[in-house]
Amino acid sequence: MKLRLPTPLLALALTGALALPPLALAQTPTVPVGYVSVTIGAGTGAARRISPLSLPLYGSANAEGQMVGQITGFTSNTLSNADAAWAPGQLAQAATPYLIKLTSGAAAGRTFLISTTAANTSTTVTIDAADLVPGALTAVGIALGDQYEILPCDTFLSFFGTPEESAILGGASAATADTVTMVTNEATETFFYSTTLNRWTKSFIGSPDASNTPLRPDSGLYYNRLANTSLSLVVAGQVSTTNRQTPVRNTGVTQLAQNWPVSLTLGNSGIQALPSWGSALAATSADKVKLTVNGATSTYWFDGTNWRKQMLGSPISNAVILPAGSTVTLEKSGGASGYNTLTQPLPYTLP
Amino acid sequence: MIPIRSFLAAASLLSLLPSVQAAVLTDFGGFTFEVEASITSVGVIQDASSLLATGVTNGDILAGYFSTFDISGLGDIRLTASIAGANPNFLFQVYLLGEDLASYMLFEGESTFFGPTASTIGLTYIETVGGPFTNVAAFQFVASGTGDPFEMTFSKLEAVPEPSVMILSSIALGGVALLARRRKRG
Questions:
Q1: Helical H runs in A89-200?
Q2: Residues 208..227 of A with a Cβ closer than 8 Å to B: which?
Q3: ipTM of the predicted structure?
């Protein structure tokens, strides 16, 4: 997957792709491909406009061995396929990270980042430690024989490029550049393109190099545009073919990617069915969903029957759109530790 | 002698004046603004003439009611406020809601123009839902920005005539002055 402008080869709106039979390769069952366009609203030059962003399409892995296969063994932090024939180390390169997604069994729809610090062997990959914070592999329902697929994972550099390549605004510091925020290991982190260091940088002491920081498809991003022009980002690739399972913190903030290539509504998002989701008649007592559209953030809560907007009059908001390629922020109160899993069925029918 | 036609024209323009004067909807003080606690998500410290919102972050809301006001013909909305400490340079939205709480006018503003002392900025009109706005009765502020929590003091919300109405008013005043001058000479 790569940020790029629409090309004739990809000139097929995804919604159309889903509705139509497969392309010219119709004789061979194939996964629909297309693109999703996300507009980043213009800032003012002084104030930032927030735009939610996620990566709703997947690229194709270009590596040796079985990119689709069967799990023949697993531990708390490794997955194995005795017949994989992976090239040792190839799936563990920092600049070109990979994801492994379970596509069958009880954990179908869970996606993990393959570690770039522990080299894979020909049969075994190690999962990135950050993806095990919600729970070990032995606790997510994986069973021998489950199917998997390996997918490339974008990074800041591979997706956003540089100011010379795209219209992102770099700067000497985060204060003078467009910034991107995401939640990693329960902490909100800010990134920007440093025109001093000529690389993506984490806004942190020491200005760590973030060029190869992975953009997990389950993690929502917020692009905070300072420049006074809008920016069009196009995500190209293939659609997900499975349901989706995403860990959500039981207390605190989760930036949840709305990484389906089609829009959902609050009502059919399934968020209200999340185990332990706090519903209440009063907004002040309920868990919240925050959605930013055109730079304006709105807050919603579930009253047990309907989603409502936190606004004078508390209008019913079940039909509020969660756009494809966006992000919603979930705010859970209550003090419970750990994670629960949000399960969302495939919101479209594959050809 | 003033031609009767000129006199009537000037008088009719002059009659517009009462309806185009700036109107203070609220000063956010305890006597004119009632905070709606079930919606508000920021800390509130309110005195007689202003309101301090504390711990404001992205998505936070300040909502409340003021006396019903007719703002038809008063299309421009101005907010007077101040921000303590470093300005987080965020965008914010202001809803002005009708008494039914279903119709509203939505405006957007930029905190960049607020400093440690109170200043007044005009808000940018975004959209209208429902109406007419002869009975505006509620205010809702939503912060849409990044960064650390900050404090913001709300001092005054005004509705002022749109520029076209202001120009019309100026013409009317000019006409009246001219008539008065002619009358004096006569």
A1: 156-160
A2: 222, 224
A3: 0.76
Q: Considering CB atoms only, which of A283, A310, A313 is closest to B101?
A: A313
CA distance A321 to A299: 13
- B63 at interface of A, judged by CB pairs closer than 8 A: yes
Chain B CB contacts of A283 under 8 Å are: 38-39
- Integer angstrom CA distances of residue A126 from A94, A99, A155, A237: 14, 11, 19, 25
A255 in contact with chain B, both atoms CB, cutoff 8 A: no
The helix (H) or strand (E) run that includes residue B164 is: helix B163-185
Q: Centre a 10 Å sphere on the Cβ of residue A70 and count the other Cβ atoms it contains.
A: 15
* Alpha-carbon gap: B49 to the closest alpha carbon of chain A (Å): 23
From A44, which residue of chain B is nearest by alpha-carbon distance?
A: B110
Residue with the larger pLDDT of the pair B180 and A202? A202
Task: Express as a percent the part of chain A with pLDDT over 70.
Answer: 91
The whole-model pTM stands at: 0.84
Burial per residue of A107-120, b for 16 or more beta-carbon CB atoms within 10 angstroms, e otherwise: bbbbbbbbbbebeb
In chain A, which residue's Cα lies nearest the Cα of B108?
A296
**pLDDT > 70? residue B4:** no
- A290, B59: Cβ pair inside 8 Å? yes
- Which residues are within 8 A (CB) of B177 and not within 5 positions of it... i.e. 6 or more apart? none
Closest CA of chain A from B44, distance in Å? 15
Residue A135: closest CA among A41, A6, A250, A262: A250
Per-residue pLDDT tens for A73-97? 999 999 999 999 999 999 999 999 9
76-135 in chain B: CB under 8 A from chain A: 89-91, 93, 95, 97, 100-102, 106, 108, 110-112, 126
CB B16 within 8 A of CB B166: no
Instruction: Give A327-344 pLDDT, tens digit per residue.
Output: 999 999 988 899 999 999
d(CA B166, CA B156): 21
Q: Are A312 and B138 in contact (CB under 8 A)?
A: yes
Q: What is the DSSP string of A318-344?
A: TT-EE-TTEEEEEEE-S---SEEEEEE
Query: To 5 degrees, how large is the angle CA A54–CA A56–CA A57?
Result: 135
Other Cβ atoms less than 10 A from the Cβ of B183: the count is: 11
- Residue A223's beta-bridge partner residues? A51, A180
